[in-house]
TrEMBL record:
<dbReference type="InterPro" id="IPR056729">
    <property type="entry name" value="GMPPB_C"/>
</dbReference>
<dbReference type="Pfam" id="PF25087">
    <property type="entry name" value="GMPPB_C"/>
</dbReference>
<dbReference type="InterPro" id="IPR001451">
    <property type="entry name" value="Hexapep"/>
</dbReference>
<comment type="function">
    <text>Catalyzes the last two sequential reactions in the de novo biosynthetic pathway for UDP-N-acetylglucosamine (UDP-GlcNAc). The C-terminal domain catalyzes the transfer of acetyl group from acetyl coenzyme A to glucosamine-1-phosphate (GlcN-1-P) to produce N-acetylglucosamine-1-phosphate (GlcNAc-1-P), which is converted into UDP-GlcNAc by the transfer of uridine 5-monophosphate (from uridine 5-triphosphate), a reaction catalyzed by the N-terminal domain.</text>
</comment>
<dbReference type="GO" id="GO:0005737">
    <property type="term" value="C:cytoplasm"/>
</dbReference>
<dbReference type="GO" id="GO:0003977">
    <property type="term" value="F:UDP-N-acetylglucosamine diphosphorylase activity"/>
</dbReference>
<dbReference type="Pfam" id="PF14602">
    <property type="entry name" value="Hexapep_2"/>
</dbReference>
<dbReference type="GO" id="GO:0046872">
    <property type="term" value="F:metal ion binding"/>
</dbReference>
<dbReference type="InterPro" id="IPR050065">
    <property type="entry name" value="GlmU-like"/>
</dbReference>
<keyword id="KW-0573">Peptidoglycan synthesis</keyword>
<keyword id="KW-0460">Magnesium</keyword>
<dbReference type="Pfam" id="PF00132">
    <property type="entry name" value="Hexapep"/>
</dbReference>
<keyword id="KW-0133">Cell shape</keyword>
<dbReference type="GO" id="GO:0009252">
    <property type="term" value="P:peptidoglycan biosynthetic process"/>
</dbReference>
<keyword id="KW-0963">Cytoplasm</keyword>
<keyword id="KW-0012">Acyltransferase</keyword>
<keyword id="KW-0808">Transferase</keyword>
Length: 242
């Protein structure tokens, strides 16, 4: 890429700014709502339906399509993706994917290429989805990685769930049926399948298929050692006195 300096750089910047202003004016005239134009960048091939709301700091690239009723931003980047009606994309990034009607993404989520987010799905804060399909009304609320997976409808993922998709040589897929409940801090080691209605207990590392309607528990049993901490606490207090 050519690096421009001095007068040439200033001229190129002025031309880009003019084209961007023309693009924004065209969308405003068509009925797109901009709360504020600060930091908004929209490339020429982007399609935005009338009534969609674009907040500050939004970048829309490539052949992105935003349907009516959407609220995009603040601080969102969407590239070559289709966002269905009445979606919310809040402070997140979406690449080469589809987000269906009524879904919400963010804040601070990352939808990587070849992902399909179904209708009314909730993708919450600090969630990463890659090359995966997530079914209608499934909730993935926080701190979760879903990669190379096929997830059914009506599922709930607790905080800290990881699909363990890479074995050091190749990527493997995880399949989660409809209405499954994946407990907090569960690891789903692919390739693995959870049948419809299956549950995994919090803290479990799942390495075998879980039948429909079954509960999988894969963790050590808790053992309490009576009075064990008392000596530690006494030593700690003595140390603090010095």
């Amino acid at each position: 890429m050519e690096i421009l300096t001095g007068v040439e750089a200033a001229q190129a910047y002025a031309e880009r700014t003019k084209r961007q202003e023309e693009t924004l004016a065209r969308h405003m005239a068509a009925g797109v709502v901009f709360e504020l134009l600060d930091g908004v960048i929209i490339e020429p091939d982007v399609v935005i339906a009338p009534g969609a709301v674009i907040l500050p700091g939004v970048i829309l690239r490539g052949k992105t399509e935003i349907e009516e009723g959407c609220v995009i931003g603040p601080n969102a980047l969407i590239s070559n993706s289709r966002i269905g009606k009445n979606c919310v994309i809040n402070a997140s990034q979406v690449y080469d994917s589809v987000v269906e009607a009524g879904a919400s993404v963010g804040p601070f989520s990352h939808i990587r290429p070849q992902s399909h987010i179904g209708p009314e799905v909730h993708i919450g804060d600090f969630v990463e989805v890659k090359n995966s399909t997530i079914g209608e009304k499934t909730s993935v609320s926080h701190l979760t990685y879903i990669g190379d997976s096929d997830v059914g409808r009506g599922c709930n993922f607790g905080c800290g769930v990881v699909t363990v998709n890479y074995d050091g040589e190749k990527k493997n897929r995880t399949t989660v049926g409809d209405y499954c409940f994946v407990g907090c801090n569960s690891n789903l080691v692919a390739p693995v399948t959870l049948g419809d209605g299956a549950y995994t207990a919090a803290g479990s590392t799942i390495t075998k298929d879980v039948p429909a309607d079954a509960l999988a528990v894969a963790r050590a049993r808790q053992e309490n050692k009576e009075s064990w901490a008392q000596k530690k606490l006494e030593a700690y207090k003595e140390k603090k006195k010095k």
